[in-house]
User: What shape does this take?
Amino acid sequence: MELLKKAVEKHRERILAAERYIWQTPETGYREVKTSSYLAEKFEELGYRLTYAEGITGFYTVIDTGREGPEVLVLAELDSVICPTHPECNKETGAVHSCGHHTQCAALLGLAAALKEPHVLDSLSGRIRLCAVPAEELLELEYRKELRAKGTIKYFGGKPEFLHRGYFDGVDMAFMIHASSKFAVTDGSIGCITKNVIYKGKSAHAGGAPWLGTNALYAANCGINAANALRETFKEADVIRFHPIITHGGDMVNAIPAEVHMESYVRGKTFDAITTANKALNRALAGAALSLGANVEIIDIPGYAPLINDPGMMQVALDAMTAIIPEENVNIVHSTSSGCTDMGDLSSIMPVVHPYSGGAQGTGHGADYIIADPDAATVKSAQVQLAMLHLLLENGAARAKQILADFTPRFASKDEYLSFLDSLNAAGDRITYREDGVAEAKI
Assistant: This one.
């Protein structure tokens, strides 16, 4: 392990410089032009030949040891979140890396540099794919709908988009380390469906003749209240979350709002739980529109699959952490996060693990989030990732092969999984008002 630690440590300044640059250049999903270009340039300086994502940000490169074995994908996410109250956010866009993704990029660069050092690959079999991937944070849904309508993307998340494009073809397993307050390995996280909800009413003078209008904002308020009334019907074990925001609430104060836009997710621990809760919420949202004589368009688009970390991969992560940072109290925490990540999409078809490094401090996605210990979040993270590659691919990749032999995927193939995702798409007005006064609702 000393060889591996030193191979990364040699590039410490390169790693920390990347962490600072990307922190100061935050960009949200599918907009990470500067971040992707910077990281690609640094990879090319190391001698890597890159395959660039067509029409969007991101890239990958494949390292072949020349010896037979599985291919391991190592990922880093390019995008930031939006938090306009963060003191170091971009003042024009509100973008800031209070998600810690910039540390992943810096660590991936450190891993790439270390893999170029003498003898680091000598005992390994198989292939290593290093990938900078866009758009993990599931935000700016209207913007991603526009990209989808143009044919630029098919999926909102970068990993399912890369999967769809074939950029992960040939990959057998994957991992990625995310910055947190301490090094840890967990069971996984929940998944989600994304929702755009458009309440449609009729405009009228708000003071002079409000009775001639149909108030879409009131319908939206009723919809939110109806959804809230369902919360006690959700089972705790299903970890259902519904958290709408209103992104457009009307056009001017002296007119009855004719159209109101909302965004949300429906999150849950399993696809069955997500789809069941989603149907109930659609019924509540449509019922609210019906109660006021309005209409509602509900656009459901697949978000992310629940993440189920593979037990064998979890143990690899734990063993690597214990070897690299023995001073840390590292263990496997058997809990499921109520956040979502598109690593879940990959876990549906291959063994993955999504552990955590130390170094971060404050509230994730919040105004007080900082990287208090950049060395832990980047350098030590890269060392752990290099150790994981060795544990998986040394001795003829025996450990990786055993993990693959023990793995049972939730979907038999990439195509089967993506076909299932596509089946979750739904759109259209949910109420039909007939001339005979009867209204019909579709949920």
Q: What stands out?
A: The domain at 192-304+424-441 is CATH 3.30.70.360 (Alpha-Beta Plaits).
